[in-house]
Specification:
GO terms for molecular function: DNA binding. This is PBP superfamily domain protein. Pfam families: HTH_17, PBP_like. InterPro entries: HTH_17, PBP_domain, SinI_DNA-bd. This protein is of the alpha/beta class and 320 residues long. Strands 4, 5, 6, 7, 10, 11 and 12 form a seven-stranded mixed β-sheet that branches. A three-stranded antiparallel β-sheet has the order 1-3-2. β2 and β3 form a beta hairpin. α1 packs across α2. It is globular, with a radius of gyration of 22 Å. About 10% of the residues have low confidence.
Length: 320
């Protein structure tokens, strides 16, 4: 058997369980998993080992009906389409601020240890819609309205009343080589034939921002050199530019990106928000999240991360 590397979603489809349950199995060390950058991966051989291990347990127990019944019940529960919030709580999004939120949530009197799903903004909202995540974080700009997140929440969670809570404001911009030898000043420079780009993955806030600007500027992606070249992390973008593989990329202004070989051109203020289904907002764990986001302890820890405006952190921005 080929030992392919699988995503949690692919593992979930093989085992006929939810993606949240896959993360829970990895967390409990029932299933081996590992990280590639900020993504979780599982080898096919480990999935087969997990399946065989489960089969051997059932076979061993099957001689005694009274013993076998709990095993069958556990398997049925695992394979059912139940709400995984009963046994796991998942916050979906890529920013390190969510790691800080999870840490505080694990210590809060009404909180729980939370799982992290490192998905792009678009996929985070989709996971919330599917019930694979309890909380989604997003920074998606709608070029038509000029609003952040609200139009996408309304479209991607149809018929599901939701609450959008501000986490932070921050700056999106353009990475270029130190000294800006190509004299790049904004998104419009992508219309120049001699400019190449390294892109973020589809569904990320930075990718959607770029695509919206290209649409407004009337620049066809087919004319952009390197548009199809992608990286799943800001460090991948800056590395490609530093090595001469691209002239520019769109990403966040962050302290760790201020490396000697790269300059940052501010271009667009964006908003990073947390999205929760309104039906859940009064439950203790969600109230704990609101408490944490408004707390001075949380804000003080975030103040150590330059480039984030926390003025409205914890404020309910909209209800859809």
């Amino acid at each position: 058997m080929e030992n392919k590397s699988l995503t949690p979603q692919e593992v979930a489809e093989i085992l006929k369980i939810s993606k949240c349950t896959v993360y829970e199995l990895i967390k409990r060390k029932d299933l081996n998993g590992y990280r590639v950058g900020n993504k979780v991966r599982v080898d096919m051989l480990d999935v087969e080992e997990y399946k065989n291990k489960s089969k051997s347990i059932k076979t061993k127990k099957s001689g005694n009906p009274e013993q076998a019944q709990p095993e069958r019940a556990a398997a049925a529960e695992l394979d059912s389409n139940r709400d995984d919030r009963r046994e796991s709580f998942t916050i979906c999004g890529q920013d390190s601020l969510l790691d800080i939120l999870c840490r505080h949530l694990g210590r809060h009197p009404r909180g729980v240890p939370a799982l992290r799903s490192y998905e792009s903004s678009y996929n985070a909202l989709y996971s919330l819609y599917r019930g694979d995540a309890n909380v989604a974080a997003a920074h998606i700009w709608d070029g038509k309205t000029g609003d952040y997140n609200i139009p996408y929440v309304e479209r991607m969670l149809p018929g599901i009343p939701s609450v959008i809570i501000r986490l932070a404001a921050r700056m999106q911009g353009i990475y270029v080589l130190k000294g800006n030898p190509r004299k790049i000043s904004g998104f419009e420079d992508l219309g120049r034939k001699n400019i190449s780009i390294i892109n973020r993955e589809p569904g990320s806030g930075s990718r959607i921002l770029l695509d919206e600007y290209l649409k407004k500027l009337g620049i066809s992606i087919s004319k952009i050199k390197g548009y199809e070249n992608e990286s799943n992390s800001p460090m991948g973008l800056t590395s490609a530019i530093a090595k001469g593989h691209a002239d520019m990329a769109v990403g966040l202004e962050l302290p760790f990106l201020k490396i000697r070989q790269i300059d940052f051109i501010p271009a667009h203020k964006e908003y990073y928000d947390v999205v929760i289904k309104k039906a859940h907002i009064d439950q203790p764990i969600y109230q704990a999240i609101l408490d944490i986001m408004k707390s001075e302890d949380f804000k003080m820890e975030m103040h150590g991360i330059n480039g984030y405006d926390l003025t409205d952190c914890g404020k309910i921005i909209a209800e859809t």
